[in-house]
Specification:
elongated; mainly alpha; 3 domains; Dna Ligase, domain 1; 351 residues
C-alpha cells in the first residue's frame, strides 16, 4: 500500500515538472517570438532613405515600405507599428535607413521624427527658375510652389523686397534644412541669413556709395556677369559706380544677354542693344530692377570694397584671357574695342 502511494506521488511530481517545463518553454518561445518581432533585424538594404510626405497617413507609409521592399517582413512591421502606437503618429521627413534595423528602431525613428537634414550648397545660379528647380530636387516642395512665392509682389513686400529684386535674398553658402521644409519656412530661413550677412559694417559701406543692400546685390550680379576672374571684380565695380555717379548708362553686355534671354551669345551685336527690356542697360540709365544672376559673396564684397579709379569704359582683352582693358575716355576705349573685335573676327566668332 505504501509503495503504491509512493509511486503515485512520483508520477504526479513528474507530471508537475513536465507541465512547468512545457509552460516555461512556451513562455520562452512566446518571448523569443515577440522579441524577434520587435528587436530582430528586418530592414533591408534596398533603399537608403524613406521619404514620408506631408499629410501622409500610416497607410501611405505602409504602402511605400511594402512596394519599395524596405522591410523583409511587412507583417511583423505592421504588428509592431500597431503595438507601438505609430499608426496615429506619422511625421513627414527624410529618414535614413540602415540595413538590419529592427522594427522597434525603425518605428522609434519614424515616430519621433528623427530625420536626416538635407545640405543645400548653391552659388551663381542664374535664374529664379533654375534656383527653384535646384531646391525642389533637394526638398519636398515643388519648383512651382517656390516660384509662386518668389513671384508674389505681396509676399515680397512683407520683407522689404519687390518681386524683381527678391532673388537678392539668397546668399550663396552651405545650408541645412529638413526635407519637408515648406517654401515659406525656407524663405524665412534665407531671410534670416540675409539679415545676418548684412552687418552694420556692410550696410554702412552700401550707404557710402548711395546704394541699398538690394541695389548692391543687383550691381554685384552685373559684376559677376562681367568678371571671369575674382581679382578683377573691384576694378569693374569701381567703373560701374563711376558711371552711376555721373548719370551715365551702365552699358553692361551681361544685362543685354539677360534681357534677350540667350546665354549662348558670345558677341553682343547692335541688334541686341536695342532690345526693349528694363534690364537692357544700353537703353535705360541706372540699375536694372533686379539681379541678372545670383551674385557671389566675392562680387558683393567687391562692390562694397570697390577699387577707386577714373575708369569709365572697359572691353575684354584681345588675348581672351578673361581680363579687361580699362579706359578713362571714349577714344582709348574705341582702340581697345577694335582690338577685341578684330580678335573675334579672326576666330570667326559672329554671334
Amino acid at each position: 500500500m505504501t509503495n503504491q502511494k509512493s509511486s503515485s506521488s512520483g508520477v504526479f511530481k513528474k507530471f508537475i515538472i513536465a507541465l512547468v517545463l512545457i509552460i516555461v518553454i512556451a513562455l520562452a518561445g512566446t518571448g523569443i517570438f515577440y522579441y524577434l518581432r520587435l528587436f530582430g533585424p528586418n530592414v533591408t538594404n534596398k533603399q537608403e532613405y524613406l521619404y514620408i510626405h506631408t499629410n501622409a497617413t500610416f497607410n501611405d507609409v505602409y504602402k511605400d515600405i511594402r512596394e519599395q521592399g524596405i522591410v523583409k517582413d511587412t507583417t511583423t512591421f505592421m504588428w509592431a507599428a500597431h503595438n507601438m502606437k505609430y499608426i496615429s503618429r506619422v511625421k513627414p521627413g527624410k529618414y535614413r535607413l540602415k540595413a538590419g534595423m529592427s522594427n522597434r528602431s525603425l518605428i522609434n525613428m519614424l515616430k519621433s521624427g528623427t530625420q536626416e537634414p538635407v545640405t543645400l550648397v548653391f552659388q551663381n545660379l542664374r535664374m529664379k527658375e533654375q534656383f527653384a528647380g535646384f531646391v525642389a530636387k533637394k526638398l519636398e516642395p515643388d519648383s512651382l510652389s517656390i516660384l509662386r512665392l518668389l513671384d508674389s509682389a505681396q509676399f515680397a513686400e512683407q520683407y522689404g523686397f519687390t518681386k524683381d529684386n527678391i532673388y537678392t535674398v539668397f546668399i550663396p553658402n552651405s545650408y541645412q534644412f529638413y526635407w519637408n521644409t515648406t517654401p515659406e519656412k525656407f524663405f524665412k530661413r534665407m531671410y534670416a541669413n540675409y539679415e545676418k550677412f548684412w552687418t552694420p559694417e556692410r550696410k554702412q559701406k552700401a550707404a557710402a556709395i548711395n546704394l541699398t543692400p538690394q541695389e548692391v546685390s543687383v550691381l554685384a550680379s552685373i559684376v559677376d556677369g562681367e568678371a571671369l576672374h575674382d581679382d578683377e571684380m573691384p576694378a569693374i565695380a569701381g567703373l560701374y559706380l563711376n558711371r552711376l555717379q555721373k548719370g551715365m548708362k551702365l552699358q553692361a553686355d551681361p544685362t543685354v544677354i539677360f534681357a534677350v534671354n540667350d546665354f549662348t551669345i558670345k558677341r553682343v551685336l547692335n541688334k541686341y542693344l536695342v532690345f526693349n527690356s528694363p534690364y537692357n542697360t544700353y537703353l535705360h540709365t541706372g540699375l536694372p530692377p533686379g539681379p541678372i544672376m545670383m551674385p557671389s559673396v566675392n562680387a558683393i564684397n567687391a562692390v562694397l570694397d570697390y577699387k577707386k579709379s577714373g575708369y569709365l569704359y572697359m572691353c575684354a582683352k584681345e588675348d581672351f584671357s578673361g581680363y579687361h582693358n580699362f579706359a578713362t575716355n571714349e577714344a582709348d576705349h574705341r582702340v581697345n574695342a577694335r582690338k577685341f573685335q578684330q580678335a573675334l573676327n579672326e576666330r570667326n566668332i559672329k554671334k
